[in-house]
UniProtKB/TrEMBL annotation, chain A:
One family name in Pfam for this protein: ATPase-cat_bd
Domain HMA: 91-157
Transmembrane segments: 175-195, 207-226, 247-265, 271-289, 421-442, 454-480, 742-763, 769-794
Native source organism of the sequence: Parapedobacter luteus
Topology in membrane: Multi-pass membrane protein
Classification via PROSITE patterns: HMA_2
Name by which UniProt lists this protein: Cu+-exporting ATPase
UniProtKB/TrEMBL annotation, chain B:
Keywords linked to the UniProt accession: Membrane, Transmembrane, Transmembrane helix
Residue ranges of coiled coil: none
Taxonomic superkingdom: Bacteria
Region (Disordered): 45-64
Pfam families in UniProt: FixS (PF03597)
TM helices/strands, residue ranges: 6-25
Skewed-composition ranges (Acidic residues): 45-57
Keyword Membrane set for record: yes
PANTHER family: FIXS PROTEIN
Full protein name: Cytochrome oxidase maturation protein, cbb3-type
Taxonomic path: Bacteria, Pseudomonadati, Bacteroidota, Sphingobacteriia, Sphingobacteriales
Length: 804, 64
């Protein structure tokens, strides 16, 4: 987003800010790059909403071809699943709108009532990219509302697996309330403990009873409400015959409370109420830091968020949109251009050109003839086709992966550092406590024996230890986040540090779908190139856009009789020359497949004379060679691609000589391959992007989805890597290792504190003041140390600067 | 000196009011979205007439 800069209005589109080329559209003295931008402006200006353009220059996004049709929203069964609330008059609904990106967006979405009087209120949440709309449904249907949003450039993303609803399940409200109670009690009990610590004159001593009772009153809600989770977790862990870190914590909290209550009730001492409250408070803060997650990203997506919500079923009399779940074998479906095929089906009518890139990794569209089976997951590029379903959605080739038993039961088992440590920690702690108690009993000093026993359990309560992991790794998460690497949780960072084997998918993962390289083979004069570019300018096909970008700015010519044949090509007349651009069959060229090993081709024919073809090569991601070079040494590298082996030679040069390169693998084979590697003892990290990698991503110890648009679909995974940050991968891996090193160091520090405290505790000479100072001191040291050192390591790995 | 009972009682009572206020804020979702309201407050009710070409954009940054 441009901030505070003035841009000349004459060379850039007033709406989206794209550089103007060729035909310019005008309205009210502003210029626009395309009809789409102009129409959004018209809608807004006719509703007196030009303010949209005041908060940011060029706030709009180019209207892409509408990817969906919304007839299905008129079906009550589907609409009811999407809305939040409905009564006789109003409906409330929350949409996820990926194109929300600036303050103008917020303004527009919160002033929807200006666009349509039936909208009662709308409120947006910028970070979650959501908008909540309340509207009068007798005057405005859900479908009309969605179309209204789409018309002004804010098309909601509606999927079967509703991200909006899934995100709402998770809430930290309960934890925050517990922190508030613990903090409240901590502050108050510390204030009431001060007189005791500073010493009281004889005449003040009568108040100490009052202070003690007050303190006990504050400790009670902390024990019963704020600290409840620790007891539950410890009990759960013990029942499974394990010792997690919550066991010594719960033991410490309990002993603190019992001893405090005993001292106060028997009027023998002031107790440790403030230490107890402080301990629980800091622990909960640590838990809160650890639990902060990304609202706007979903790591649990499966095929349902990729598939359409509904599909058009052709009945005897009419075509009707139905939810996917209602589709059964034998149904006839109508699939329009750009729609996804939801179930394995036989082609009955029409020309199918299916883009399977997301499913198989194959980059070129596949042509199918009548009677052939088309697998679910492909996207139809050409005209509308009719299909007959041969397998229900849940049993289709692709979706079967998710219904696989292994896939369902699968749960990642990874023992974090603190889990490993806590096993020994608890046992050693109990041993020391019992030894100290036994020693004082043998010396016939039972009072001191109990004192020493409880003091050991209190002072060695691994508060600092419990905090070192969340605080270190939350710094790591934030550093990754700033650089376009979104990790699901802190355990995944530790896992990232532990992997020793990296497996890459090819298409979309190490090759970049966006920045294609292009060259021309054949004869084309300068004037003719301008003709071609003028025609391509009008098409939204990715290859056309690529060609325009490649050609650069040039004088454009007026065109006429423009026609686009989906999946085949485009044609138009330029200065009474017939220009045809597209596939070999479309232009009448002899298909010279095999002559060039790589890439897609765009053939050019002018007046029925084939001039040659453009070759679009899918380039590797920026810095791929360097990344692989750096990773070759510490890691075991593999490539598992669904594509054919045509690029083997080029990849051989990039990957180290000992790397395994596998091609033509089916999704299930990828999963199997990961499994095989794991059986040899490797900790496997899988990088993938498509549905075809979903199984492998789940099977791997760590699954990382590489995506160029993080708001778009990415398969279920542990982390999402922005494609532009691919070059930073070696640094991310190094930093993860460093972060784990920081945890080890802070563990050493907290252990030192424990040893100091224990040496007093076993002597039976620990005073409440000593505990009240040592506990927060060690906590603050750990928080400070981990934060500073983790940032220092980030700087060492050159991850301190925010990506521009 | 018995005033101290009264004073401590008062201070705890006031603190409890704040705690209740925090609970209320938490329950009504005021901590759910901490970013959008900060932009919302900058929107004008009616657009002031700014001469063409001198338009300024608000310096509203989006967190990256």
């Amino acid at each position: 987003m441009k901030i505070g800069t003035k841009t000349s209005n004459s060379t850039k589109c007033y709406h989206c800010g794209d550089t103007l080329a060729g035909t310019v559209y005008e309205a009210d003295g502003h210029v626009f790059c395309c009809v789409g931008c102009q129409s959004v402006y018209r809608i807004l200006s006719s509703n007196n909403m030009q303010q949209y353009y005041r908060y940011n220059t060029h706030p709009g996004k180019k209207l892409r071809e509408r990817s969906e049709r919304y007839e299905y929203l008129d079906e009550p069964t589907i609409a009811d699943k999407l809305i939040d609330f409905k009564n006789d008059e109003i409906t409330m609904v929350t949409f996820y709108i990926p194109s929300i990106h600036c303050s103008s967006c917020i303004w527009l979405l919160e002033h929807l009532y200006k666009l349509h009087p039936a909208v009662v209120a709308s409120q947006s949440d910028f970070l979650k990219k959501q908008v909540n709309v309340t509207f009068k449904h007798p005057d405005l249907s859900l479908r009309e509302l969605v179309e209204l949003l789409a018309n002004v450039g804010y098309e909601p993303k509606i999927t079967l697996q509703d991200v909006v609803k899934a995100g709402r399940k998770f809430s930290q409200k309960g934890l925050i309330a517990k922190i508030a109670v613990a903090g409240f009690c901590f502050g108050n009990s510390m204030m009431l403990s001060f007189p005791e610590y500073f010493g009281m004159a004889a005449f003040e001593a009568k108040y100490s009873m009052f202070f003690g009772w007050m303190n006990l009153g504050f400790a009670l809600p902390v024990l019963l409400y704020s600290g409840r989770d620790y007891f539950q977790s410890a009990w759960h862990s013990l029942r499974h015959r394990q010792l997690n870190l919550d066991v010594p914590l719960a033991l410490g909290i309990l002993v603190l409370f019992v001893r405090t209550a005993w001292e106060i009730l028997s009027a023998t001492g002031p107790g440790f109420a403030d230490t107890l409250c402080g301990l629980v408070f800091f622990l909960l803060v640590g838990r809160w830091v650890q639990q902060r997650t990304y609202h706007h990203l979903s790591f649990e997506r499966d095929y349902r968020s990729y598939f359409p919500v509904a599909v058009t079923r052709l009945g005897a009399a009419n075509a009707k949109p139905v939810p996917l779940a209602e589709i059964s074998v034998g149904d006839r479906l109508l699939i329009r251009s750009n729609e996804v095929i939801p179930a394995d089906a036989i082609l009955l009518k029409g020309q199918a050109a299916i883009d399977f890139s997301f499913v198989t990794g194959e980059s070129e569209p596949v042509e199918k003839v009548l009677g052939e089976i088309i697998y679910a997951g492909g996207r139809q590029l050409g005209e509308a086709i009719e299909l007959e379903v041969v397998k229900p959605v849940s049993q289709s080739y692709l979706t079967k992966l998710w219904n696989n038993d292994a896939f369902k039961q699968y749960k990642k088992r990874f023992r974090t550092f603190s889990n490993v440590v806590s096993q020994y920690f608890t046992l050693v702690l109990l041993a020391i406590a019992i030894t100290a108690m036994a020693y004082w009993f043998l010396r016939d000093d039972p009072a001191k024996a109990w004192g020493a026993f409880t003091a050991v359990l209190i002072i060695a309560c691994p508060c600092a230890l419990a905090l070192s992991t969340p605080f270190t790794l939350s710094v790591a998460l934030r550093v990754f986040d700033r650089h376009g690497f979104y990790v699901k949780n802190t355990a995944a960072v530790e896992q990232l540090a532990a992997v020793d084997c990296l497996v890459f998918d090819k298409t979309g993962t190490i090759s970049s779908p966006s920045a294609a390289r292009m060259r021309f083979e054949g004869q084309l004069q300068a004037g003719e190139l301008a003709m071609v570019v003028s025609v391509c300018q009008n098409s939204n096909h990715p290859l056309s856009r690529e060609l325009v970008k490649w050609a650069g700015p040039m004088e454009l010519m007026p065109i006429g009789n423009y026609q686009e044949t989906g999946g085949k090509g485009i044609e138009a007349e330029v200065h009474s020359n017939r220009v045809r651009i597209g596939s070999a069959a479309f232009t009448g060229a002899r298909d010279a497949a095999g002559a060039s090993p790589t890439g897609s081709r765009i053939y050019i024919a002018i007046n029925n004379e084939v001039k040659g073809f453009f070759i679009v090569e899918q380039p590797w991601r920026e810095g791929l060679r360097e990344v692989m070079g750096e990773l070759a040494k510490p890691y075991d590298l593999h490539l598992v691609s669904g594509d054919n082996a045509k690029e083997r030679e080029r990849l051989r040069e990039i990957f180290p000589p000992d790397a395994d390169l596998l091609f033509g693998k089916l999704p299930a084979q990828k999963l199997e391959y990961i499994n095989k590697l794991q059986h040899t003892g490797s900790k496997v990290c899988m990088f993938g992007d498509g549905l075809n990698d979903a199984g492998a991503l789940r099977q791997a110890d760590l699954g990382i989805a590489v995506s160029d648009d993080i708001n778009n679909f990415s398969p279920g995974c542990d982390a999402i890597l922005d494609g532009r940050s691919f070059v930073l991968l070696p640094r991310f891996l190094r930093f993860a290792k460093d972060a784990v090193k920081v945890i080890h160091m802070s563990f050493g520090i907290s252990l030192t504190y424990n040893v100091i405290g224990l040496s007093f505790a076993v002597m039976g000479t620990m005073s409440p003041l000593f505990a009240a100072v040592l506990m927060p001191l060690s906590t603050v040291t750990i928080i400070g140390f981990t934060t500073v050192v983790a940032h220092a390591y980030a700087a060492k790995n050159q991850l301190n600067n925010i990506r521009s | 000196m018995s005033a101290i009972f009264f004073l401590i009682g008062c201070s705890v009572f006031i603190a409890l009011i704040f705690l209740a206020a925090f609970f209320w804020a938490n329950k009504t979702g005021q901590h759910e979205d901490t970013y959008t309201p900060s932009i919302r407050i900058l929107f004008d009710d009616e657009p002031p007439q700014v001469p063409e070409g001198e338009e300024e954009t608000l310096d509203v940054r989006t967190p990256e």
